[in-house]
């Protein structure tokens, strides 16, 4: 059975491991001849994009917004990140065997058309939402570093680099993460040690957040780490199919876990050291002048590292939604389009950092139900041959209404009843503030239960024939 358009496969053979070359195709299966790399590269793939101010900001929220002590924040950071990193490892380990992006593999649980729901959400959240948030962070850091350049022009420069990386695609993105890794790791490790050392780690908050604040912080740290889950297979699909699953999962999880825990812990220490701003200056004000400048430069580099992944994976998700794009560079074209839209969203948010905090807290609202559906579908198919799953993800007639129903209902119910945000507080946290924000765990559990029920009532159905020569 042919799973890849022959014309695209021929172009793929010209791509290989070339770095300065536009990645052809969209979301087709990667041919065996094009597989390269090793699981170790996932360590820097998932470390570099978290070495940025957005990660520090998550830690700042614990004491600043949720009324936690440093140690309460630290516990929430470790627990929430561990869960998000673990699921990243699980999903990443499947990539080499199937050779398709994460949102294409998601079709097994949602059907070809039903997959529009998660793939469409991820395209918008990653390619526009996160892209705008991190572009603003990078632009403000660059403006603080070289004040002679207007903030808008700094934004243009940052976005231009981000779009170049995403347009060229997988190999250039991976190479950039690799070379950014040692610079970001050294600067942020040194800076974090100094910041943590300056914090009064035993200070009590003026308005303790209690259990409710802890649970909200737990959800925020989980959501930040798990926000990478819909991208997991995107960066393991080029690995050889016989690549070690355990090493693939381990290095993916490790990259996210250590980078998020380090920088978020430093963020919690920032507040205990007397800094209360939710911008890079809160971090750099605690550093020697020369190191503060280097850290601002690292913030810019980290924002670019994160957004190279955001817009690249956002473009893959858009194509994975099944939109017919008859061009051998469909993904590259979509990456450019998403980046342009993201630029204007970032431009509008340059002077409105309040939107930054809200965005960081709601990622888990859709990721958790999607993850529940994907994992339970995988569990139900655990005895099936992998080739059967490969066939499903390219069958345009394949239907599985259990996935979109379970995810959609779980999202609606969990958000309406349990959301605890500045602009909307559901009836449950309104009545019992101690529950914090249980939207993500409720959404996950509800999605699992609904999928198990609906899939028995309405089992998946295949199309009459598999599509072999169309873009997947």
Molecular structure report:
With 472 residues, the chain is mainly α. The chain is built from 21 helices and no strands. Helix 2 (41-47) packs across helix 10 (170-198), helix 8 runs antiparallel to helix 14 and helix 10 (170-198) runs parallel beside helix 12. The longest helix has 32 residues, at 289-320. The model is unreliable at 1-11 and 465-472 (pLDDT under 50).
Nutshell version of this structure?
With 472 residues, this protein is mostly helical. The protein is built from 21 helices and no strands.
Give the topology, please:
Blueprint: H1 6-12, H2 41-47, H3 53-66, H4 70-92, H5 95-98, H6 102-105, H7 107-110, H8 116-145, H9 151-168, H10 170-198, H11 210-226, H12 245-272, H13 280-284, H14 289-320, H15 330-348, H16 354-361, H17 364-380, H18 386-392, H19 402-418, H20 427-431, H21 439-457
Helix pairs in contact: 2-10, 2-12, 3-11, 3-12, 4-11, 4-12, 8-9, 8-14, 8-15, 9-14, 9-15, 10-12, 10-14, 11-17, 14-15, 17-19, 17-21, 19-21
